[in-house]
Write a structure and sequence with these properties.
183 residues, mainly alpha, 2 domains, 6 helices, 3 strands, 10% strand, elongated
């Protein structure tokens, strides 16, 4: 994954609505199933399995769904994985595990949210596109990008875009001629 791919991923529109709710449930449910599946072999480490899923939720759905994933995960871990031998916030193990998980989740969500805002503010900075448009060609597709911007726009197949550009330039020339003859 290139730097531009990572930036595009962070700036991409977040998944929202019913799909985001479903993905939030899955992001908390899948690690619960994984952790419950290895309960006979592994003791402790109840909440570490949830952290990558909190990260994915924050990246693809934004901080609100990342927070919802973290909270749902903590509840599921407490009542499904840790079970009745760890009363909610009553044992030192429970308090420690949930505290570390909460801090880790907050750091993950805050970092993703902060990176999104930092990248967006840099790409929207005044004068960042003063250098003009850069046209490029990759695998027969024409692309446009702007100086100082990491995002790019696919314009279409080379032949179609070239024809549209020629037509645009011809229209500009007709406009110039008409303006000259009117003056």
């Amino acid at each position: 994954m290139t730097r531009d791919d990572l930036i595009d991923l962070l700036l991409a529109p977040s998944i929202t609505g019913a799909r985001a709710t479903l993905y939030t449930i899955l992001a908390a449910g899948v690690p619960t199933l994984i952790r419950a599946g290895v309960a006979g072999f592994v003791s402790g480490c109840e909440l570490t399995i949830y952290l990558p899923f909190v990260l994915l939720a924050a990246v693809f759905m934004g901080w609100r769904y990342g927070l919802a994933t973290a909270l749902t995960s903590a509840v599921l871990a407490q009542f499904v994985v840790m079970g009745p031998h760890h009363p909610f916030m009553a044992s030192p193990c429970s308090i420690y595990s949930l505290s570390v998980f909460s801090v880790g989740s907050a750091v993950i969500i805050g970092t993703v949210h902060g990176l999104r805002h930092l990248i967006a503010s840099r790409s929207e900075a005044p004068g960042s596109s003063d250098g003009g448009i850069i046209f490029s060609l990759e695998k027969g597709q024409a692309w446009a990008s702007w100086y100082g911007q990491s995002s790019h726009v696919q314009l279409g197949p080379q032949s179609e875009v070239a024809e549209m550009m020629e037509d645009f330039l011809a229209q500009l020339e007709v406009g110039r001629r008409l303006n000259r003859s009117a003056n």
